[in-house]
Design a protein that fits this description.
The chain is α+β, with helices and mostly antiparallel strands. The protein has two helices and two strands.
Length: 59
């Protein structure tokens, strides 16, 4: 997460995948980046998106 107020639900990279019937992250994160993310809770791919920008992106 980018900061204490940032979460995946607010990220532009977090989208609904109909195949999985769930939300997934579309950022291309390798194993090393994922490990660093889990250690410091700072996602380098976090991009804030409010409801309007996220819906606009999906259209």
């Amino acid at each position: 997460m980018a900061d204490s107020n940032a979460s995946c639900e607010n990220c532009m990279n977090y989208i609904y995948d109909e195949d999985y019937d769930d939300y997934v992250c579309i950022a291309n994160i390798d194993e090393d980046e994922y490990y660093r993310f889990t250690q410091n809770n700072r996602c380098p791919y976090f991009r804030f998106g409010d409801d309007y920008t996220i819906v606009k992106k999906q259209m």
